[in-house]
Amino acid sequence: MEQVLFLITIVSSFVFSGRCNNVYNYSRSDFPEGFVFGSAISAYQWEGAADEDGRTPSTWDTDFHSNSGDIACDGYHKYKEDVKLMYDMGLDALRFSISWPRLIPSGRGAVNPKGLQFYKNFIAELKRHGIEPHVTLNHDDLPQVLEDEYGGWLDRKIIDDFTAFADVCFREFGESVKFWTTINEPNLIALVCYENSSTEPYIALHNMLLAHASAARLYKTNYRVKQNGSIGITFYGSWVIPFTSSKEDKIATQRAKDFIYGWVLHPLFLGDYPDVMKRIVGKRLPTFSEEELRLVKDSSDFVGVIHYQTVYIAHADYTSDMGGVIILYGNCTEVELDVLPWGLEEVLEYIKQDYGNPPVYILENGRPSKHDSSLKDVGRVEYLGAYIAAVLNSVRNGSETRGYFQWSFMDLLEIIDSSYTYGLYHVNFSDPQRKRSPKTSAFWYSAFLNGTEQEPKNLSVSSSLGFASQ
Ligand SMILES: *[C@@H]1O[C@H](CO)[C@@H](O)[C@H](O)[C@H]1NC(C)=O
Ligand SMILES: *[C@@H]1O[C@H](CO)[C@@H](O)[C@H](O)[C@H]1NC(C)=O
Ligand SMILES: *[C@@H]1O[C@H](CO)[C@@H](O)[C@H](O)[C@H]1NC(C)=O
Ligand SMILES: *[C@@H]1O[C@H](CO)[C@@H](O)[C@H](O)[C@H]1NC(C)=O
Ligand SMILES: *[C@@H]1O[C@H](CO)[C@@H](O)[C@H](O)[C@H]1NC(C)=O
Ligand SMILES: *[C@@H]1O[C@H](CO)[C@@H](O)[C@H](O)[C@H]1NC(C)=O
Ligand SMILES: *[C@@H]1O[C@H](CO)[C@@H](O)[C@H](O)[C@H]1NC(C)=O
Ligand SMILES: *[C@@H]1O[C@H](CO)[C@@H](O)[C@H](O)[C@H]1NC(C)=O
């Protein structure tokens, strides 16, 4: 393949040309002091080394076992190189997760020394480069042994096992890690993994909330005084708007907010599931004991928001407990997202007004594009520029949002559709070396982070990129 595009060409064509320069009219210095800008990856999607050094399979290995999943970005072996790229980009922070079956291969009990050493090395490397680690304990990947033994999130045994896993993490990494997220997008996982049952999603989410609260209590009781960190949970929050102006659609949309956000946020901030859920789901919705309610309420120091898109809700009887169907907005598909930044503002406003304005970290936001299509991802730049502007608007209007993590730092093994990726860096999955190459968005984000839109710093890349002119 003719290799014609050199770094300098890309920089001059797509950053200096002005095509991207008008995307935003704000700068990083408009954000409050201490506001954190980062990017994100997750263990299964980045690490690879699936059966190396004592790791056992996770539920993701079982569902998506393939050569690509076994190697992914090979981050397990390339972490130093990747931290250097993160440093060169100017990230304040990195969100990543710990693979439970790498740290504790049997799900409970003995800690794997090699897994432990890997995370210690990785965290130390981040700290050495001044990058704050934001650690997610469970990013969609349970140990398969626990899934086989008792069905994972469906059994209350997971609460003790998760708490013991968290205990190892706090004890071993807590000197360096000040931001803990217990569980990634529990409301989405509960729905997607248990979609064929009318009871299981509610049981799974109930156990996730209890596991989260149990780990948070442990942290606050045994570690907080020494380690001075904070601990929270995430939720998957697409914004929802009525499909038509009919009264039914408006009511269905409010119901959807209770079923999507309230399912997680009501117990955490208001003390129980939303009334509308209790009424509709009835006996299939697990109940909290008095003690559990006290454990769950106020257990989250912050809310981690996972936001990608806005969808319509149309009233529909009998299709689901929610009594509404989701209709994609405009030209959106599952993997082609429109730029609708006001949706994120609405989510942040809703959290502010309905849940007492807790601290918020946006832990995922980004735009997918066809993998291998182009390094000139101007559509991603447009999306990120608009959504970061939306965050600034929200902060200026009183939202306690304290950080923004773009998804994802590099192309990862994506689950919904692996032919669409979100990376600032392209990863060549056909290359045994898994070569990383910066996209236009990498230069853009770097320049934004450095407050020098006009003068992005040089990123660490080898001489040429593997893309022919396009
Ligand atoms: C950017 O421009 C928009 C539209 O003119 C305006 O609403 C917004 O306040 C501006 N943002 C800043 C940070 O100046
Ligand atoms: C749900 O049922 C459908 C149809 O039987 C099946 O194709 C799908 O794999 C099931 N999903 C899960 C998560 O079990
Ligand atoms: C604890 O953390 C807070 C917020 O990060 C910080 O402001 C404070 O100085 C820290 N206190 C100690 C004793 O380290
Ligand atoms: C959908 O895409 C077409 C063609 O790019 C554009 O003209 C139209 O405005 C888009 N619709 C919405 C709702 O964004
Ligand atoms: C800004 O905050 C005020 C007070 O909470 C609220 O009434 C208003 O709707 C918010 N504006 C936007 C655009 O969200
Ligand atoms: C960051 O911006 C400054 C100008 O404000 C520039 O001199 C410097 O080279 C940039 N830093 C890096 C590491 O690129
Ligand atoms: C960036 O790299 C280019 C090409 O290698 C070089 O000419 C330029 O001096 C470098 N700029 C900085 C600020 O290091
Ligand atoms: C990816 O790597 C393979 C094998 O090294 C190479 O043939 C191909 O050209 C690369 N693709 C891109 C887009 O760089």
From TrEMBL:
Cited PROSITE patterns: GLYCOSYL_HYDROL_F1_2 (PS00653)
One record GO biological process: carbohydrate metabolic process
Protein's UniProt name: Thioglucosidase
Recorded GO MF terms: beta-glucosidase activity
Transmembrane domains' residue ranges: none
PANTHER family the record matches: GLYCOSYL HYDROLASE, THIOGLUCOSIDASE
One Pfam family recorded for the sequence: Glyco_hydro_1
Organism name: Microthlaspi erraticum
Signal peptide from the UniProt entry: 1-20
Keywords noted in UniProt: Hydrolase, Signal
